[in-house]
Amino acid sequence: MRSALGGPRLLLRRLREISAESVSAQTRLDKIVIQIAANMVAEVCSVYVLRADQRLELYATEGLNREAVHLTTMHTGEGLVGLIAKSAEPLALSEAQDHPAFSYKPETGEEAYHSFLGVPILRGGNTLGVLVVQNKVRRVYSEEEIEALQTTAMLLAELIASGELQAIQDPRDLALYRPASLKGAPIVEGIGLGHVLLHEPRVVVKQLIAEDISGELARLEQAIDAMRITIDELVAHGDRMGAGEHRDVLETVRMVANDRGWVRRLQEAVMSGLTAEAAVERVQNDARARMQRQTDPYLRDRLHDLDDIANRLLHQLTGQSYVADRSSMPDNAIIVARTMGPAALLDYDPKRLRGLVLEEGGPTSHVAIVARALGIPAVGPVSGIIDIVDTGDPIIIDGSTGEAHVRPQPDVQSAYAEKARLRARRQEQYARLREVPAITKDGVEIKLHMNAGLAIDMPHLAETGAGSIGLFRTELQFMLAPRFPRMEEQRRFYKDVLDAAPDQPVTFRTLDIGSDKILPYMIKIEEENPALGWRAIRIGLDRPALLRMQIRAMLKAGAGRDLRIMFPMIANVAEFEEAKKIALGELDHIKKWKYPPPSALHLGAMIEVPSILWEIDLIAQRADFLSVGSNDLVQYMYAADRDNTRVSKRYDNLSPPVLRALERVVHAGLRANTPVTLCGEMGGRPLEALALIALGYRSLSMSPASIGPVKSMILNLNLDEAQIYLATLLASDDGAPSVRERLRDFALTREIPV
């Protein structure tokens, strides 16, 4: 064979020339194998492509029987070629027929060849096929020769990924384009049909072959140095934030960036004839292929670190943006992201968005709140989706089941298109109910309100016919801002919200930050158990200037009209009294300085900490209204983190303990003549809403999309019958963990849509 330096570079140049020729895909492949065989002084060169059915098909050969092309196939794991595809590692043998995995294919005529060298054709760590050279003489292939063939396989990977092979086979028959169905969790209900838009697009390496090796080495060294400086700055910033998981991640990334073995592999790849960018992709491909096949979960988790560092280096080399080009997004874009902040989603054109898929992040993530406000279906976490999609891939997401169908089969597309049409018809039916009061069949009216937190939420108030804004999450404004909003900025924002609902009440919740809601410009306090730590009203009472500023801004914004403010995470009556004292002090302040005050000020408490259940009558007597935050209340009752998938589904909202606690709250409100509203996600699900109404709730606040389905349920409900049935279930001492199935059967037998 030729030298490892001159041979590959010469071969890659010739292959690039072949790639530029105006010939058919099969002719191009045939020319490529001839050129590889000649350059590597081999009697045989063959290309096998992995099909969607996980069989390897002979696509081109020089030296074997040409009639075997597209006829010879083998399973992944079958024979030497199948072994390479399964292991994603090269295999070099001086006597192939002595290997226990050797499988003889008589139609190929390969029995005359002894030496065998095969390498996987990899892209993104996924195997697309296998490239093989064979010799009649028994010979030992050197490390340089293996490296040369691996480098050549990169070009074949791009040829397969380019879609050119579609002219030979239906693209759905290739593994690269095979359909995939992945399961996550529902975030926002709805059906999304469209095409993938990667939030952090991969860098597409277009120039594989280096013209100037020494120049490429210099570029690589400069990019590594610049990247290390950036990472050091991030670590230094992390030091100011204190110890914690974020610091551990950054330290791991820095360790990889300074790993000599990793840098040496990059340099060797450049020396083989690749550009600096192609070298990074080549080394990462090999690392991904190895680690994806590891059974050790720790090693598999390190894939994120390797992907991160390779992505950083590629962006450093190319200067490409870390985020998608929003100006060229398709009309039916479904964003796929590993993680995403709420502000990032708002940067996309909402008219072109059809959905969101998160690899990490679920129904309670902050971006989920924005997705609900935009009215787009969303699913997540969907593990592994980033590895198998590219921008432009067809995709369907089902926000009711949490499923994502990548490159779906025609029958799947047809089924979901019909499902989307049915959903559209249901939405039309719900829209016709907009002006219809939510009154049960036996004449009890239920007030339906809307949760909001962004300016883009406000038009939904008129669209849905909601009675009011039952919960306005003020922290979202702070989370989206580049710095802490000044009081005048807050005042304008709250006034705009009130002006958008001139004839309807708006209930503002004071800042509910802490735990997972971290403001980007505030120092994160590391806590062992942040959900039970320094958050919500605890921050407001410990930093009263912050709470006073927000309340003063609300009071000024509410001049001349009723103003409703509630305090989150009240754990005892004393906390409510302290917060109330601050609010009344601010009211005295604006009156003293001749600012027009609200016509009335109503102060409420959120019931979401179980301890307050034992002071529920006291708080009901002191507060102007109560709002039940069912998300946190259930989490704290069961000591089950709702963001932890291992335990979040272990306990049910419709369990007797939860229902009895909720009943305790609404009855306390009745005794004190204090209005009670439930504003957690529970109220927006028809079956759960049925249970709440049967417990005595007459006011529910929910996402805009939930109002139609809940109202439809109410209009078909005989409340007296439901109350009797639920009371019977709760009086039972059978120890059942939930009443969900029995309540669902009750609804279905009475044709109540849940």
Descriptive overview:
This protein has 754 residues and is an alpha/beta fold. It has 26 helices and 22 strands. Strand 15, helix 14 and strand 16 form a beta-alpha-beta unit. Helix 13 crosses helix 24 (704-715) and helix 16 (487-500) packs across helix 18.
Counting copies of identical and different chains, the oligomeric state is single chain
Number of strands: 22
Helix content: 40-55%
Q: How would you characterize the largest beta sheet?
A: 8 strands, mixed
Return Rg in Å: 31 Å
* End-to-end Cα distance: 71 Å
Dominant shape: elongated
β-strand amount: 15-25%
**Secondary structure tally, helices:** 26
Question: What structural class is derived from the secondary structure elements?
Answer: alpha/beta
Which residues form runs of ≥5 with pLDDT under 50? 1-6, 239-246
Mean pLDDT: 88
Q: Give me the side-by-side strand order of the main sheet.
A: 7-14-13-9-10-11-12-8
Provide a quick synopsis of the model:
The chain is of the alpha/beta class and 754 residues long.
Question: What characteristics describe this protein?
Answer:
single chain; 754 residues; alpha/beta; eight-stranded mixed sheet; eight-stranded parallel sheet; 22 strands; disordered N terminus
